[in-house]
Specification:
The protein is 35% helix and 24% strand. It is an alpha+beta fold. It binds one RNA strand through helix 1, strand 1, strand 2, strand 3 and helix 5.
Length: 504
Amino acid sequence: MPAVDENHVIAERREKLKAIRENAKLNGGVAFPNDFKPEHQAVALHAEFGGFENEVLQPRAVHVSIAGRMMLKRVMGKASFATVQDSTGRIQLFVSKDNFTDENSEAIYESFKHWDLGDIIAAKGVLFKTKTGELSVKVSELRLLTKSLRPLPEKFHGLQDQEVKYRQRYVDLMMSEETRATFIARSKVVSAIRSFMLDNQFLEVETPMLHPIPGGASAKPFITHHNALDMQMYMRIAPELYLKRLVVGGFERVFEVNRNFRNEGLSVRHNPEFTMMEFYAAYTDYLWLMDFTERCIRAAAIAACGTAVLQYQGRELDLSKPFQRLTIVGAIQKYAPQYTLEQLNDADFLRAEILKFGTKPFDHAGLGALQLALFEETAESQLWEPTYIIDYPVEVSPLARASDANPEITERFELFVTGREIANGFSELNDAEDQAARFHAQVKAKEAGDHEAMYYDADFIRALEYGMPPTGGCGIGIDRLVMMITDSASIRDVILFPHMRPEA
RNA sequence: GGGAGAUUAGCUCAGCUGGUAGAGCAGCGGACUCUUAAUCCGUUUGUCGCGAGUUCGAUCCUCGCAUCUCCUACCA
């Protein structure tokens, strides 16, 4: 399908490409050559030679070959400067026909004058420094490798339209050093986490993305259909139940970094597909997990930023200090001290109070669930410094092990940073009969109208019946972690191709 | 789902109380051998998001629609 947004600038460039094709035909060449192999990159050259004075540099005759996108061009009659950008950064070319080795120097220079910003070009030459001290390449060979048909955004202001930045991320990446830095940081975060897990004897695994029964979380799934089996399938909402099957199988430490899909709303904190790192370690519990998760996140921040003391949206965020730990009730008392302990243990009071915030709790919600709801309304958004919230009620934690001391609460935590949930972990429920009973309760809740309640997963129960060692497991939301580490306000800024409505 | 705002040249943006639209960049032509968003001279480019309505006349006022952004809700 031809592009519908043709304009006179593109038309001009198509004419130039046509001439390039014809010229290539005459000379036995091709319009889109692929025989140039750059041997150097911009930033490495600056690092290695940027410190030399020209009097030292030029006599050394450092020959280099580079390639990249032409971002700026300044023609001054018989000599020109051009700025080329490769994957590492930018370097300036000094182009004069006097320096060309090819005998057609006049023709090459004339064609160069008509090349456009955005074209991919290649150059060979020697390094020198200009009068103003900028490291540059005195070009002896110059080639056009790829003609660009579409004009770049305005060279000074760059791409400003947020919609285009998301839809045409390739243009955003060309134009914005900041966007490139964000996704480089994301890559560093993911590889740091992977290294951290491998260093701690975890095995990286891949479990199904297509589930016959959605499980492992409370969320609405995407539904799809398998033609050959003529069956409904679900895009996974969490890998949890499969990872625990692996622990049953004897892989005592496993982790998976991959996508989850949830058929829910979009916001600056939610994308329909998002990345989780979920891990399980046999013979550990939620206390061990909190310590481990904390170290993992700190390592990721240091890998990406060089420090664990960050700035987020203009406010300091210190990941170097030990993360705080508060119970749900303790967090309410700290951040909403207007409530008395008596009120916080009064289900009727809580129910009325939560209604004031415009949220209607389920009729079957118990004291713990009501306390949690009030926590979410009053305290959650204030948890700027990393804080583990613990003592989640059993009724909202159908996969977590109950506390040995108090059967109403679980050995579970959620980690909040900058007012957002970043991680969720718990000592796993490994009592198959208890798990079966909890699934039955979920099925009942579903029948009672709770659409996000879980399904009964008979194979998972069968797996637990073989015996799963006592285990701790946790999931870390990678996108939100990267938001935090890269000082990004929206989840869309840390996802290369965020979900968008189709173009009109 | 609810609310607020945005949409003007390829890009970045102006456009007064309603009288059919401008600048800079990019493009095209020219000058220029150390520029840095190069500079200087000349010059091309518009379904003013889409569709109705009010009006002699709508980029501007009204209504509807589309997309995006932010807030809010469900949620991680």
